[in-house]
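fyi for ur records
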Amino acid sequence: MMKVSVSRFANNPLLTPGDLAPSRPDFEVTCVLNPGAFRFGGRIGLLLRVAERPVPEPGFLATPILAEDGAVSVIRVREDDPGISSASSRSFAWNGRFLLTTMSHFLIAWSDDGGRTFIPDYSRRLMPEQSCEAYGIEDARVEQVDGEYLITFTAVGPAGIAVGCRRTRDWRSFSSTELILPPSNKDAALFPRRIGGRYRLLHRPSDPACGNHIYLAESPDLRCWGNHRCIAMTRPGCWDEERIGAGAAPVETAAGWLELYHGADRTGRYALGCLLLDRDDPARVLARSEAPFMEPEADYELNGFYGNCIFTNGQIVDGDRVLLYYGASDSVVCGAELRISELLASLKIGDFGRKTA
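which gave:
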């Protein structure tokens, strides 16, 4: 099996929290991460996940929440409040409510040099709009299907973590959020075309008893999804033993659909591997990475808000070349260049040829 050559961009990180302005003056950007990627108007765009928090006030925990009137309000709770039962840098529990310390939204950034440097476009922010997004919108995946760009993302609200979808044709006007998969679900990646007359979607439901595995769903109209099947499970003792989830849209090759996915081990270390799916029946897994093709190595991948972590949900494919955009340590946005031929050669065809019901 061939080793995959991963060429990280020399100018990594491409974007850091300090490079971005917050959406309002009383907020600060804490993380920029996990961008979706797309081509439009001769340029490459990234749909950045921007995590913000209220400017800290000593002695208080704070959470931004979308209120019923559509405005973002801030709840501040004293750190010694007896109603606080747990607290971390990401979240806290207060009087039986689970609250996040940040709220994420999407911001577009454009590249005019082939995808190596990006300039934020502050006229194009996508903010939470509905109650299912009251705690934020996260980790967008972008795919053009039938001439329309579909943005699938994680919608986080008090009722759970679900999959939302917004649509655009011009990257200026966007449809309202449609909740296409209920809680608890995320990591939804669309196939770029119909297969056997139906649209296909990878997704990752979560269950505290059964784990976090990759499923495949079908739809006649990109709105109603059914025939859900588990196609890849976590593997005990492997680099992806704790949780797995799809990256960006599968890439169609002569050998099958190539899907880059993330996996985490029991220590919480995130790395990247591949699945190869049958072109006509993508529920059939033809091959799977025995080892990651990319692991946290650089300092910006090992250290940050959540260290020892690389996570991708955005890529640009140009023939054999893949420009892979990823979040590093849940803190910054980075890029790397890969070759599809090397990714395919790194797989051992046949080891995972069985279909998982």
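The radius of gyration is 20 Å. thats all i got for now
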